[in-house]
Amino acid sequence: MLPSPHILVTGGAGYIGSHTVLVLLQSGFDVTVIDNLSNSSDESLSRVARLAGKSPRFVKADIRERGQLSAVFAERPVSAVIHFAGLKAVGESVRVPLRYYDNNVVGTLRLCEAMAEHGVFTLVFSSSATVYGDPATVPISEDQPLGTPTNPYGRSKLMIEQLLTDLAASDARWKVALLRYFNPVGAHESGLIGEDPNGIPNNLLPYIAQVAGGKLRELSVWGNDYPTPDGTGVRDYIHVVDLAEGHLCALNALQTRPGVGIWNLGTGRGYSVFDMLQAFEAASGKTIPYRLAPRRSGDIAMCFADPSRAERELGWRASRGLQAMMEDTWRWQSRNPNGYRSSTAG
Ligand code: NAD
Ligand code: UDP
To answer: Domain 6-186+237-268+305-319: which topology?
Structure first.
């Protein structure tokens, strides 16, 4: 019997990574996770193992450490890498930009060096819709000109896209997927794995969930004077399990596709802050107190995907709707009020 393909997942203990590791294991892949646990807990991987009935291999290491990376590649042949490892807090990236460029850009560079050294040339990268900046039109297709991201986090994603494009142009062995995520939300339907933000959440849905769970007092709605149907910001929220499945489809597509492919992973539907608030109230049965607050600096009015290229070329389409996103988030939040640190989920 041929051995199962072996996938290296950087940042696999994190939010999107853990859901993707589960999908990979359930699809018959062998998985090694490399994560420095700077924004996660390996408890996520124990839960993944419970759900999958088998464990990923876990190496606690930093992708910037050449020796540690090399040891992972040397130990067992790797078929492809899915690269989630990175820092993602927009506000923090403004305060400590060098940390973001080092972790995200230098980390990716070191990873690519180690891959090439060990003859691994297939890479799926977590990019973001932030590379479109403030889009001229919506829905956003991949052909739309790239914008100017408004912060160092966004610029690090753009730099990495450029780095990987240059690399693939220099050597035809590289096969790279740049996956531009829209707004990942939700959790696995089991309630066992989900998003576990450090401190006060930056993103809308984890914030709403913690207000509903009584950990935070009220939601601040940042701006109700945008040129949108109800004045609040509109985003394309995508269920994290749909997103995870998109990685599997990208891996498959790369087998027969050299060079760089760029795909939006979104639903193609936009929802406002008030839409999200109401949908969460309906799913949780809780009232979410909120107050109107000034716009958050750097925010854009509207952002949603044209996901048709991913459907055409990857055979992938998001299938989980707003209700599933809300119910799954609430199940995760109510069973794990303190995330992976202590919970009633066991
Ligand atoms: P996350 O913080 O939950 O996961 C990232 C993981 O990478 C964490 O487990 C962290 O410990 C690890 N990590 C960070 N730096 C590392 C390093 N130098 N070496 C080894 N491990 C390291 O974040 P997430 O939401 O799962 O995001 C995954 C990827 O997707 C990130 O690259 C992020 O920028 C990108 N992305 C996320 C979103 C989002 O809204 N969640 C949107 C677009 C793109
Ligand atoms: N938002 C808000 N209050 C919050 C967090 C977010 O009103 O506490 C709004 C934000 O202005 C944006 C939307 O919710 O219109 C989504 O914000 P998030 O940070 O989740 O995603 P991003 O802006 O990075 O797409």
So the answer is: Rossmann fold (3.40.50)
Number of H helices, E strands in the chain: 12, 14
- Note the pLDDT of residue 150: 87
Q: Look at residue 342 in the predicted model and tell me its pLDDT.
A: 66
Strand 234-235, strand 271-272: pairing: antiparallel
Note the ligand closest to the C-alpha atom of 240.
1
> What's the confidence (pLDDT) of residue 229?
97
Catalytic residue annotation: 153
From the CB of residue 137, how many other CB atoms can be counted at a distance below 10 Å? 9
Mutate to test the pocket of ligand 1, among 22, 33, 38, 130 (most ligand atoms within 8 A of CB): 38
202 ligand 2 Cβ < 6 A: yes
Q: How many CA atoms lie within 13 A of 242 on its CB side?
A: 28
Gyration radius of the chain's alpha carbons: 19
Which ligand is closest in space to the CA of residue 103? 1
Q: Rounded distance, CA 86 to CA 265, Å?
A: 18
Closest C-alpha residue for ligand 1 atom 8? 14
**Minimal-distance CA residue to ligand 2 atom 1:** 204
Inter-residue contact 83 to 123 (CB < 8 Å): yes
Using the 8-state DSSP alphabet, how is residue 140 labeled?
B
> What pLDDT, on a 0 to 100 scale, did the predictor assign at position 346?
45
* Under-70 pLDDT residues of the chain: 1-2, 342-346
Model confidence over 181-203: pLDDT tens digits? Answer: 999 999 999 999 999 999 999 99
Tokens 């999908």: give the residue: 23
